[in-house]
Design goal:
single chain; alpha+beta; two-stranded antiparallel sheet; 4 strands; elongated
Length: 135
């Protein structure tokens, strides 16, 4: 059975549908970004340098995901190293190793964080297109 609605009723119904769809999309994106951050964290843990000795692999084990709330932007996730945050940029990028007599070598960065970012961006784009009805 069809129901006739006036112009004003139609407008209200249309806005109601848009809000409901927007809430569904927002919830889906929230779940996908959480999964993406978890994937990045696991990738970095698996591919980070592992030191030898008593604290072997401590740098790799200390990667974690933190949820960050922004007033206008909503919820986002940060992948960070809990204890060794000061050396993450050194291990990521190339740099010169120096001692008190001058420089004596070059360290080649492993670029694990950049690789994880690229991996997660591609994964997130494909998942959004799959779940939102794209091809």
């Amino acid at each position: 059975m069809t129901r006739t609605v006036g112009v004003i009723d139609f407008q209200k119904e249309a806005w109601k549908l848009v809000r409901e769809y927007g809430d569904e999309v927002r919830a889906e994106l929230h779940d996908l970004t959480k999964e993406s951050a978890d994937i990045a964290c696991k990738y970095i843990r698996a591919n980070s340098k592992k030191s030898k000795g008593k604290k072997g692999g401590a740098y790799a084990k200390d990667w974690a995901v933190k949820e960050v709330h922004a007033r206008l932007l909503g919820t986002s996730y940060v992948v960070y190293n809990r204890k060794h945050y000061r050396v993450a940029h050194l291990l990521e990028r190339n740099h010169t190793i120096a001692n008190r007599y001058g420089s004596y070598g070059e360290y080649t960065g492993d670029h694990v964080i950049a690789d994880a970012e690229t991996l997660c961006i591609g994964w997130l784009e494909s998942e959004i297109s799959k779940r939102m009805g794209g091809s």
